[in-house]
Amino acid sequence: MNPKPYESHGAGDPTAVPAALGLGLLAVGGWLLTTARPWQKPGHPLTLGLGWAASGVLLVCGLVLLARCVRTVHGRPDTETGTDPDVNAGAAAAQATTADTED
Fold it and tell me: pLDDT digit string (tens) for 5-18?
C-alpha cells in the first residue's frame, strides 16, 4: 500500500528535534574545547576557564539530550504492574500451579 503524497503522514518522530539539538550542542562544545587550548595560544586564565566551563556545559547538555532521546526510543515501554486484570490472572494461575507442584 503506497500512501499518496498529499496524505497526512502523522506528526513524525518526537525525539528528532531534541536529538539534533543534542548533536549540535556536542559539536559546538567540542569545537569550543579545541579552540580553548592554552598550550597553543597563551591567554588570560579567566578567559581559558570560561571557555572550558562553557564547552563543558555544552558537552554535558548535549550528552544528556542524546541520552534521553536514546532512552525514549530504545527503552522499555511504560507499563504499570498490577493494573491489567489478564496479567494478574495469569500470574495468579502460575503461582497456584507452582504451589501445587511443590507439595
Answer: 666 666 777 778 88
Beta carbons within 8 Å of 24's beta carbon, 6+ residues apart: 62
Number of other CB atoms surrounding residue 93 within 10 Å: 10
Name 30's Cβ contacts closer than 8 Å, sequence gap at least 6: 55, 59
> What is the phi/psi pair of residue 48, to 5°?
-65, -40
Say how far apart CA 82 and CA 69 lie, in whole Å.
28
Q: Indicate the pTM of the whole model.
A: 0.59
DSSP assigned state of 39: T
Q: Kindly give, in sequence order, each residue whose CB lies less than 8 Å from that of residue 60, ignoring residues fewer than 6 positions away.
A: none
Look at residue 73 and give its three-state secondary structure: helix
